[in-house]
UniProtKB/TrEMBL annotation:
Membrane-crossing segments per the record: 6-28, 40-58, 64-84, 93-110, 130-145
PROSITE patterns: HIS_KIN
This protein's name: histidine kinase
Catalytic activity: ATP + protein L-histidine = ADP + protein N-phospho-L-histidine
Family annotation (InterPro entries): HATPase_C_sf, HATPase_dom, His_kinase_dom, HisK_dim/P_dom, HisK_dim/P_sf, Sig_transdc_His_kin-like_C
Origin: domain of life: Bacteria
EC number: 2.7.13.3
Domain (Histidine kinase) ranges: 221-462
Pfam family, one: HATPase_c
Keywords, in A-Z order: Membrane, Phosphoprotein, Transmembrane, Transmembrane helix
Source organism per UniProt: Hymenobacter frigidus
Protein's UniProt keywords contain Cytoplasm: no
Length: 464
């Protein structure tokens, strides 16, 4: 290769290097991100100028000079991309250029002094060249797409910042206006605070009154419900005492009947087991009453909803029977097998269920008092799992709720009961306990004169 061709190839490489350097500087915003590296890229012409002088002085004719310079520029660009790798498009360009730089290094290594590749490597190098060029072009387009995306995100952030600054300015202006009006409104504000304090006190008293009302219903139910296990305990205890007397008489005889003694001991053991079982039943009823009466700690624990619903259904039923011994109703339960426990506040959910059951029994009793022929008061409860939630359905075949009333049923102080029979807070508190306290939902479906059904949905695992 003559000297002019070497000059031409070196000049071509220098122009391409300058263009790539300028394009990369603009694409990656190097003056802002890496000012030192950007200044270094602006001097890419210096090595080319030195090589021009070397060619002129030493009469160099090797075609490898231009390719060596171009490879040096590519390595420098890789170093720049590595320095700004925290920028996503830069990482993509680094990923794009690495195979191309390796190819150029391999090509320079395999080339003969005259700048030609040995024929043995022609096919391999041609295939590799096409691959790395396609690779480079593909990822350059990807990098451009990433840059456009980042630019859009930057514009969105700028708009958000602008809006935020505008809001801050407006807030400052509003605060100024508030401060100016504060002096004139001080007296009114104090009066409002006093009224609010009184309102909160009254609200707390009403809530406590509702809780005490539900506690009264629960206590009446417990007094009746606890009679059954206590009667069993007393009966089995009396029988056991008689059996022990028979056992002592048998042991006192000269000729003892060992089979009879064994039978008596077995019967006494069974009686003691039954006494223990019914004693535990009575203890669980008392424990439920204590949990219901004490203030909620807000601590969530795994709750067996089947057990909780069954317990409060029977206590609510016995509570109404304590007021009206002539009242009888059918209790229907349909509990899902293997129902997962729910992280919940047991006493609070107990209050919700007690309120729904009490309302259901009240509704069927009112319908029964109308004297419909063939009417059988029925209150049912069922549980089921739906995905990540557990459902509780409480249904009664009472009076039903008109559409106009259903729209207001969860509002505080709204009640359809006569004066003195309800505060209007039961369903409102139940709604707050389910929705705010347990991130669940409670809905009502009803047909007037037919039925009313409440559906409670609770997440199995509480967030946070």
């Amino acid at each position: 290769m003559n000297q002019s061709a070497v000059y031409g190839e070196l000049l071509f490489s220098a122009l391409i290097a300058a263009g790539i350097g300028r394009g990369l500087s603009k694409f990656l915003d190097l003056p802002r991100r890496l000012p030192r590296w950007n200044r270094l890229l602006s001097y890419l012409w210096v090595p080319a100028a030195v090589l021009f002088l070397a060619i002129a002085i030493f009469k160099l004719r090797s075609p490898l000079i231009g390719e060596g310079y171009f490879l040096l520029v590519l390595v420098l660009l890789l170093a720049v991309l590595l320095a700004v790798r925290y920028h996503r498009p830069a990482r993509t360009l680094l990923f794009a250029m690495a195979p191309f730089v390796l190819y150029k290094a391999l090509e320079l290594l395999l080339e003969e002094p005259d700048g030609k590749l040995p024929k043995a490597y022609d096919a391999f190098m041609d295939t590799t060249r096409y691959f790395v060029l396609i690779w480079l072009i593909t990822f350059v387009f990807i990098a451009r797409s990433q840059k456009k995306t980042l630019e859009k995100e930057r514009l969105v952030r700028e708009e958000e910042e602008k809006a935020k600054r505008l809001i801050e300015i407006q807030n400052v202006e509003l605060e100024r206006l508030v401060v100016e009006r504060t002096a004139a409104l001080t007296t009114q504000a104090e009066e409002l605070r006093g009224a609010l304090t009184e309102l909160r006190t009254t609200q707390a008293q009403l809530v406590q009154s509702e809780k005490m009302a539900s506690l009264g219903e629960l206590t009446a139910g417990i007094a009746h419900e606890i009679q059954n296990p206590l009667n069993f305990v007393n009966n089995f205890a009396d029988v056991s005492v008689e059996m022990l007397s028979e056992l002592r008489e048998e042991q006192a005889r000269p000729e003892r009947d060992l089979a009879l003694e064994a039978e008596l001991l077995s019967d006494i053991s069974q009686n003691l087991q039954k006494i223990h079982h019914h004693g535990q039943r009575a203890a669980s009823i008392v424990k439920g009453m204590l949990e219901h009466s004490r203030a909620s700690t807000g601590e969530r624990q795994p709750i067996d909803l089947n057990h909780l619903a069954d317990e409060y259904l029977r206590l609510a039923y016995q509570g109404l029977r304590a007021k009206d011994k002539s009242f009888n109703a059918t209790l229907v339960t349909d509990f899902a097998a293997n129902l997962p426990q729910v992280e919940a506040i047991g006493p609070d959910l107990g209050r919700v269920l007690l309120n729904l059951f009490s309302n259901g029994f009240y509704a069927v009793r009112q319908r029964q008092l109308r004297g419909e022929a063939g009417y059988a008061p029925t209150v049912s409860v069922s549980t089921a799992r739906q995905g990540d939630e557990v459902e509780i359905r409480v249904r009664d075949n009472g009076m039903g709720i008109p559409e106009a009333v259903r729209q207001k049923i969860f509002q505080p102080f709204f009640t359809t009961k006569p004066s003195g029979e309800g505060t209007g807070l039961g369903l409102s508190l139940s709604y707050d306990i389910v929705t705010k306290g347990h991130s669940g939902s409670i809905t009502v479906n009803s047909q007037e004169g037919k039925y009313t059904e409440f559906l409670i949905s609770l997440p199995i695992h509480q967030a946070g």
